[in-house]
Amino acid sequence: MPLRLYNTLSRRVEEFRPLDDGRVSMYTCGPTVYDRAHIGNFRTFLSEDVLRRYLEWKGYRVVQVRNLTDVDDRTIHAAVERGSSLRELTEPFVEAFFTDHDRLGIERAEHYPRATDFVPEMVQLVQKLEARGLAYEVDGSVYFDISKFPGYGQLAQLDPGSLKEGERAAGDEAYERDDARDFVLWKGGDRPEEGDVATWDSPWGPGRPGWHLECSVLALTHLPQPFDLHSGGVDLIFPHHTNEIAQAEGATGKPFARFWLHAKHALLDGRKMSKSEGNYVTLDDLMERGYKPSAVRRLLISGHYRMELNFTLTGLDDAARSVERLLEFRRRLEAAAAGEGKDLSSTALPELAARALKDFELALDDDLNIAEAWGALFVFVREVNAELDRAGPAEAAADARTALAALASMDRVLGVLALAEGEAAEVPEEKRRWIEERVAARTAARAGGDYGRADAIREELVAAGVEVEDTPSGSRWRLARRG
Q: How far is the C-alpha of 96 from the C-alpha of 101, rounded, in Å?
């Protein structure tokens, strides 16, 4: 079945086939490391993680680049304000990004280039643009002349002639240029407000690269041109990605990227997440309240990447229950698979597994329709539970292993169960043994009709921060959320 993706460049859903058979090259815009990334940022990164995982699920080898923007107006101003170097400012936020990245189960990219490590290559690309007549210098700064690049604005469906002064990139206002619509490639000249935290030598004098220049160079340095996929948040379509295309194609004369994918924003209680407006939440904030990253991941990949997602604590509670339901389902299948299995073909589990995998793939082939993919999974859960109720564990052992394999296959893309399993392992072994002993004692008390003792044990567990839930297949426990 062919994978179809919505290409922002054409505004159409198109069949996706990589240029190199079996290998996908993709560039994903990463964080600006002047502060900790918030949940809204990770909504985009997780959408890209689902894309990567699904490409691998389909059998492709993925080569991914995710940049780290460690030089731009925000990082420079923060460094000046704190009296530190760029590296001293950004390093803790780079580490925090990777901590949250791994907590959320995001697969590691092959390359994480920092912009500051590739400034010489950026200077070379600007020189190529000058040589092609697409750039000009004024007082030590260099600008891209959009009037000389006929395809400018195609990605954003803009008419270059309609651009106004206020529509260029923020931060360029202090720089003089021949045309107010042109954007800065190299920021030179006198910049006393920036101190000396971000200054490199160049043919035009000391200065630093413009933000848009960075991603063009980092992509061209690590990937072939054209490469297969470029993605990021919808807010990057213009000017950032528009300018990336102009720089890369202007310098090389080749197409830059074939497919452009853009994720819409995550809202927080109905409002766009924004650090400038103080309306955001971090993974640490949620974990301090007792929420697990698996629940956060479940919620952030619950809706289609091209639709806004409203992040609420009520939704996060629902996501946590959804993860627990999947864990309970897997435990039930594992228990069934451990049986002897009298008749290897006595249940409908293999048929249900095959249908679920087919529906799961059909959903994700349709422009990564993750909501439909989740739907296919939970139909599978419901139907398998009903079949286990009908057949009984003795007849289901071999077939249960087939169902377990299907569940594991789907989780290779969703990444929720694997994450939850790792979180469960984080409970210290001594505490785990104590909890399981108390849960077993409570179960025995209930079976013997000693409900007073059972209630007392439950209260003991609650006081230790443990919640117990009774289900048809037995009692299960989890650490309680705080706050």
A: 8
Element (H, E) at 405: helix 397-414
Pairing label, strands 207-209, 183-188: antiparallel
Which residues in the chain show pLDDT less than 70?
163-178, 340-345, 392-395, 425-427, 471-474, 481-483
As a whole number of angstroms, the distance between CA 189 and CA 192 comes to 10
Task: Please answer whether residues 198 and 71 qualify as being in contact, where contact means their C-beta atoms are separated by less than 8 angstroms.
Answer: yes
Condensed to tens digits (0 to 9), the pLDDT of residues 58-78 reads 999 999 999 999 999 999 999
CB 55 within 8 A of CB 296: no
Dihedral-angle region of residue 168 (phi above 0 means left; psi in -120 to 50 means alpha; beta otherwise): beta
Query: Distance between CA 20 and CA 227 in Å, rounded?
Result: 10
Respond yes or no on whether the N-terminal peptide bond of residue 150 is cis (omega within 30° of 0). Answer: no
Contact 412, 57 (CB under 8 A): yes
141-144 and 135-138: which strand pairing?
Answer: antiparallel
Measure the CA angle with vertex 180, ends 174 and 183; round to 5°.
75
What's the pLDDT score for residue 436? 81
State whether residue 158 is helix, strand or coil.
coil
Q: Is 28 helix (H, G, I), strand (E, B) or coil?
A: strand
CA separation, residue 331 to residues 324, 472, 473, 474 (Å): 10, 12, 9, 11
CA dist., res. 376 & res. 373, Å (int): 5
pTM, 2 dp: 0.88
Domains and CATH numbers, the chain: 4-263 (3.40.50.620), 283-424 (1.10.730.10), 427-479 (no CATH)
Contacts 24+ apart (CB under 8 A), 422-425: 423/292, 423/293, 423/294
pLDDT score at 340: 54
